[in-house]
Amino acid sequence: LLEAKHRAELLAESERLHRTLLDSVSHELKTPIAIIRTALDGLGQGNPYAAEIETANRRLQRIVENFLEMTRVESEALRPHLEWCEIGDVLHTATAPLQRELATHPLRLTGMDALPLLMLDSRLLAQALGNVLHNATLYAPAGTEIEIHAALANDTLELRVRDHGPGLPLGSEEHLFD
Q1: SS in 3 state form for 39-106?
Q2: Cα distance between residue 133 and residue 129, in whole Å
């Protein structure tokens, strides 16, 4: 029993240290991004490099946020926070940071109106959907439609995103999530 207690205490301390490290790394990564954002606001629209810096800053911010969320999920420091949500709110949260990328891709939404309130972690779902939509904007030709279809199947939310890009090269399917 003493050994089990000691292991539990070590595990709790390890989790506490891990959260502290993650919070510190998060702060150290996000602070320069915020400073760049503030400096950009000060430059104004007249600077020819401002748009490029803003695009790079938004890309870096998305990478850092995805990295931190992935680290939290993998370390099990992040537990889903389930709440009643409307799918439209989740979609808005997912698309708001992508307005510039989505400007050249009309969105077609289907099935959204037929859904009831859903019990889910809206923040995590919006992040996942945002990642898929960002990928679609990268590979679909400008001017082509991106379709999002939502449906309930056996009490499970199904979201389907379809773009009109080149698709996966043959044989790369098994490496998709590497």
Answers
A1: HHHHHCCCCCCHHHHHHHHHHHHHHHHHHHHHHHHHCCCCCCCCEEECHHHHHHHHHHHHHHHHCCCC
A2: 6
CA quadruple 95, 98, 101, 104: dihedral sign: positive
Which letter does DSSP use for residue 142 in this model? Answer: T
Q: Residue 156 corresponds to which tokens in the numbers above? A: 């499970």
Residue 15 has pLDDT above 80, yes or no: no
Beta strands 83-85 and 146-153, pairing class: unpaired
Q: Apex CA 163: angle with CA 160 and CA 166, to 5°? A: 130
Note the pLDDT tens digit of each residue in 28-78. Answer: 878 888 888 888 887 777 777 887 888 888 888 888 877 777 776 666 656
Distance CA 151, CA 129 (A): 15
In 3D space, the residue among 99, 106, 95 whose CA is nearest the CA of residue 140 turns out to be 106
50's tokens = 């401002």
